[in-house]
User: What shape does this take?
Amino acid sequence: MRKDLKGKELGKGICQRKPLSDYMRMVEQSAMAADPELYSYILKSITENLTFVVLKSVYGIPCERDMFYDRRRKFYFVLSGVR
Assistant: This one.
């Protein structure tokens, strides 16, 4: 079993965690599965906490509000199935 800097044994959960890169890959793949054309906007929305108004005015998202939020809901649905 692994030990921390003070010599204490670390719990099994710490040793068995997925690397952050695996989680990032899961999020990206889920966004692509939700909508290949809007996945970059979905990622910006969830990682930078951007609203549709910001995505439309600053980044020029190529869809309307209802479609974007529908795809974002689909992203969360796909992500919940991947985990």
